[in-house]
Amino acid sequence: MISFEQIEYWNWWVIGIFLIGIEVFAPGAIFLWMGIAAGVVGLVLLIAPDMMWQMQLLLFAVVSVVSIYAWRFYARNRTPVPSDQPNLNKRGAGYVGRTFTLREPIKDGTGLLHIDDTRWKVEGEDLPAGTRVKVVAIDGTVLQVERD
C-alpha cells in the first residue's frame, strides 16, 4: 500500500487524468479544474521533489478552488456571441409570422395545426378547416394564431 510520503509527480498526473475523465460523466466543469490542479501539483512536484505531502494537498486544494472560481467568474461575465440564427433550436419560434392552412377546425379556442410531419396545438378564434391562419406568437408549445 502506498503512503502519502511516497507520492510522486506522476501519481498526481494520474489523479488529474482520472478527474478529467470523471468530467465526461458529471459535466459542470468542476472535475475538469480539479484535474488541471492535480496536473499543476504534479508539475510543481517534478520541479521540487522534496515537497511534503501536506503542502501538496494544500497546493491542490488552493489551485482547485481558485481555478473553479476563476472559471465561474469568467463564464458568468462573458457576453454570448449573437447568433445569425436565433431560432435554430426553437422550432416553434421559427413559425411565428408564417401562414398555414388549417386541416382541422379550431373549436372553443383550441385546435391542431399540421405543419410538415408535426401536429401543433393552436389557440385562437374559432375557425373552420381550410382557413388560412398566421402564427403570431408561441406560448410554450402552443402556437397562437389569427385569421390571415
Report on this model:
The protein has 148 residues and is α+β, with helices and mostly antiparallel strands. The chain contains 3 helices and 5 strands. The radius of gyration is 29 Å and the shape is rod-shaped. The N and C termini lie far apart (78 Å). The model has no long low-confidence stretch (mean pLDDT 89).
Radius of gyration: 29 Å
Unreliable parts: none
The largest sheet has its strands arranged as 1-4-5-3-2
Q: What composes the largest sheet?
A: 5 strands, mixed
Q: What's the β-strand tally?
A: 5
Overall 3D form: rod-shaped
Percent of residues in helical segments?
Answer: 25-40%
Strand content: 15-25%
* Total tally of structural domains: 2
Mean pLDDT: 89
Q: DSSP helix count? A: 3
Structural class: alpha+beta
- Taken in chain order, the helices and strands follow as HHHEEEEE
How far apart are the termini?
A: 78 Å
In a few lines, what is going on in this structure?
With 148 residues, the protein is of the alpha+beta class. 40% of the residues lie in helices and 20% in strands.
Strand and helix layout:
Layout: H1 9-25, H2 31-47, H3 53-77, E1 99-101, E2 110-115, E3 118-123, E4 132-139, E5 142-147
Parallel strand pairs: 3-5
Antiparallel strand pairs: 1-4, 2-3, 4-5
